[in-house]
Amino acid sequence: MSKDPTTAVAFHTRLSTELTNPGDDQTIIMSDVLTNAGGAYDSSTGYFTCPESGVYVFFVTTLAFPNKHIETMLLKNGHRIGMLISGNSDTWGPSSNMVIVTAQKGDHVWVKVNDHYHDTGTVLHQGFTTFSGFLLH
Fold it and tell me: Is the pLDDT of residue 88 over 90?
């Protein structure tokens, strides 16, 4: 819960189109915003900016297409706080991670491709690749 019960901080986003030919270290911008209470998620950059200091919970889910592989990272101010490996099988390759982290007001949290660890072509499914979070306390 937020320190001020009248001010909620929570967001839930997903890819609006399939991720095709990702670049090395590319930020994965989830531009389909389903919830953005508090307005801290920027769908043009893919960054969540912590509006206040506290403990936050973040979730990332990815779904790789069959026979595709991608590694993604959850970053806070450029430092890895979570990692996912999806795919590389002949069926859909899901992956998810939840992170609980202390953050300061103004900290940035986002999802990106891990270096060069990805295939080419259509890699991530838009409807099932999500980035969400909320202020716990």
Answer: no
